Amino acid sequence: MTPTYEVCLTPALLPHFTLKEKVIVVVDIFRATSSIVAAFDAGVKHIRPAATVAEALSHKSQPNTFLAGERDGKPLIDFDFGNSPTVFLENARKLAGKALVITTTNGTKAIEAGKGGAKIVIGAFLNLAALAAHLKAQQHSVICLCAGWKNHINMEDTLFAGALGGLLDSHFHISGDAALLAKQLYAKNQEELFNLLKSASHYQRLAKFGVEDDLRYCITHIDVSQHIPKLEKGMLVVE
Amino acid sequence: MTPTYEVCLTPALLPHFTLKEKVIVVVDIFRATSSIVAAFDAGVKHIRPAATVAEALSHKSQPNTFLAGERDGKPLIDFDFGNSPTVFLENARKLAGKALVITTTNGTKAIEAGKGGAKIVIGAFLNLAALAAHLKAQQHSVICLCAGWKNHINMEDTLFAGALGGLLDSHFHISGDAALLAKQLYAKNQEELFNLLKSASHYQRLAKFGVEDDLRYCITHIDVSQHIPKLEKGMLVVE
Q: Which CATH superfamily does the domain covering A4-237 fall into?
């Protein structure tokens, strides 16, 4: 039977999906999942997603471990890093072989929400093609779980879900109108992604914090990474 | 202050919106709100939305009252009508001046969900321009509440939300990515609405019941009605 590709536009809608035996692709383009992929590109060994700031801080004294994260787009006190893919890449020498603990407003919560599936993998425009190839090579149905913004849907995660749907179309049944809508939205706007996103709410919110270079990186550096982070025993790792 | 236009893509997400003092536009293109507008076009005096089949049946013995509705797209036993805009229009002579009690899978539940707002009005492609003019003429912010399909979003309601957003753009602040996304989706697909909808899940589900003419009517008869049904004391009326 052809596996299905579904899209859940916000974790608030996830209770209405059947997760069992499906691969859950967690996506939070601005910026958690882009940052996670970039951190592996920078040579990080593994990443522990922490749902709360307190949980992240409890790992502070561990050797060879850095804390990273944000709340509402802003950096956190006593953390080593924010949630910036470009800063991770600039600090590749410092990060290589080290562990990262990361907590973010929406992204790490979406990872937690996706735990009812067979497997959790991390998606971003950075690893789009590699992820699509990986998903095609296995036989599981897929749910793309968009982290959104505080229970609301957002443009950038929806566009990513649509881009992935377009690549999976030949091997998967695009199931449900959310998947169809996302795919159509991406197909009709892929030449002007950045312009469309500039008017989106999350972009405008984050741009106020001076992270426009980051946002541009997350959207325009498509397929620069071969890393497909997956969750194993509470830890994100790559092969 | 410029009023806002927000879009709630399914009633399951409505708890994350602030309804107070806002006008709630309830939309269920296939077919409840299209049918409600068409019933007023057919001369119905008022319509009582009933959340359950049992509630609708409790009105059966009332004089000059017809029962209408469906569950999962199928007609209901002991009801006078299904949920068909074209059948309502064909029965204009029978329906003129009469009362209708209507219950549907998604639409009447969305009306119930929207009751936290200042006012509920009914939207469909049939009354799109009249509705937009009505909303522009008042000063309230608006939430377009898409009925969707059993807590999932659907294509046709999202496209309507986008069409309305496009018309309101000059007078309202398009607020949130759901509204932006819907507006963009409609703008990029308005020349081929029917083709896009033919691949959508709800269309395919309903087409199996032989109501394709109805579906085509709901999508292609744009602006044929001046009626803007509003909820007053539990009853839908027009001015």
A: ComB-like (3.90.1560.10)
